[in-house]
Write the structure tokens for this entry.
Amino acid sequence: MPTRAIALLTCIAGASLLLAACSRPEPPSEPIRAVRVLTVGVDAVQGGQEFAGEVRARVESRLGFRVPGKLMRRQVELGQRVKAGQVLAQIDAQDYRLAADAARAQVQAAQTNRDLAAADFRRFKELRDQNFISGAELERRETSLKAAQAQLDQALAQASSQGNQASYTTLVADAPGVVTAVEAEPGQVLAAGVPVLRLAQDGARDVVFAVPEDKVRAVVVGSAVAVRSWANDAVLPGKVREVAASADPVTRTYAVKVAVDAAQAPPLGATVFVKPAALSAAGTAAIKLPTSALRQDGEATAVWVLDEATMTVRSQPVQIAAADGNAAVIAGGLTPGMKVVSAGVHVLFAGQKVTVFNEKGTPAPVKSASVATETVAPPPAALPAVPSTATRASRPE
């Protein structure tokens, strides 16, 4: 064979080898993921809406002086228990004592003028009886007596008022209770009515909590409420006593007061959890899924639904109505009998082949769905947000 032909064949063979070396290898096949699945069914909601509240006294007064002055002493401290009539604070009473002394002096002067006018009237009355003076002169003396008596009455009233002013310089407790706040310190000059301290009176106790605008219509006066203490989980029965007529200007929520037994109520200011019976969804039939089955698909919440015929998954958007413990209450998007992936949702894609995870290595049985009701789940507006566990089916045995 000529040398040129041999060289040409060599070049062709080398080019074939280079092309074979530069070609991309075939991509490896996608692995088949093992997932946990459950069968969608209908279950009863276990939880109810719960709010945080605070224990307060039924009557809580902000006490202050009825007259202005400089605060000289405050005899009580925060948290101290006081009795009815106990002295709480005092302001400088020197000016009020001087005013009371001046009023008493005016009373004495007015009384002297009245006595003088009365003596004149008696003397002129005797002269009139003897016809030594006219009746007009006697009437003038009688008028002077009445004026003097009026001045005396005025002075007496003024003295009584000044005496009250002096007594107002001492602040006393009008009922037994506990000091819950101190708002003034000695040396401070106070105007009349400025609060000095806050007193929670003994007796009835209320639990106060806030309800959003869309739930306040369901909470009516007299409805039952379960109050759970944060400290020891003790549950106390209560009844709604008052619902605010207007919303708070800052939070836009409505304050609700619940009456509880004072003997069993937690300490003042304690945090409690309130569960109104009117907002409870316990016993309502609904579809529930564990939160591990949910994922975010764009702006929607979705789950992976298993197609048993092809053993592939597809994305299914769902609507969340509320929470029930560690489960989500589904308002729409699913029907009983569907197979939903409950674990491993974030490593899947649409159309991916999967296999049902089985811890023991045996085929995972698929349980039948629960019996569905006519309404799988109430609409989101009607079902309160309450936390539970999903109805687990098709868990590997």
Summary: The chain has four domains: 29-47+281-397, 51-56+203-279, 64-91+169-200, 94-164. The longest helix spans residues 94-129. The domain at 64-91+169-200 is CATH 2.40.50.100 (OB fold (Dihydrolipoamide Acetyltransferase, E2P)). The chain has a mean pLDDT of 82.
